[in-house]
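Record filed below.
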Amino acid sequence: MPFVRAGELTVHYDLAGPAGAPTLLFSNSLGTNLHVWDAVVPALTDRYRVLRYDMRGHGMTDETPAGGGYSIDLLADDALALLDALGIGRVHLCGLSIGGMVAQKLGARAPDRVASLILCDTAQRIGPPSNWDARVAAIRAGGLDGIADGVMERWFTPPFRAARPEIVRGARTMLVRSAVEGYVGCALAVRDADLTADGALIRCPTLVVAGDQDLATPPVLVEELARAIPGARFVLIESASHIPCMEQPEALAREIRGFLDGLAAG
């Protein structure tokens, strides 16, 4: 259970795979932690050094007061501080939802640290802001348990919820055990984020992925992100909603592996 001091935070992380291999950094979504990638990692660690971490206020990483909200820039700084603390220079970077927003920011702002991007079920803006304000108000009034069932309906398709209730239950538990301040801080970061100017600044190879039934970031919105990034490729994961790394991990791992292996071969 490794921890490291990175900037102002004590960060929980996991690092697996051969020393000296290219590093693939995963950034989690709102209300999850590094375990959201558990089913994807085994298909990658033979060739890549896989680094996962719990975002600020999630899992076992420090939370800080939400105040008026964190920012995507702050969360990007956290990721860079982690790489610096571990002595890692350049990474392939895969982010999910808010993690994908962090990845976009890093691709635009720190191109020397990002070899390629894989952006999963994310967008340049995820809104409208009124939805986030309502969600934060509900959490302040009734905690994360009060929103959890609605979140599961956005995270997973109805057939998956019926067929794999144990995974859905586990995801729900992961959500409700999140730190409220961490969740709220990150939710407000998404509310306030507008990355429309960042796409044109991203020059690294980029794969943009969407679950074909995603309700939180609909495929049309994710494809719009792909069009904004020069040379980006867009793919759909069939029979998946917002968390394909849990719902269709084999399909997502194939897309990630094919993309990265193709870069290596090229």
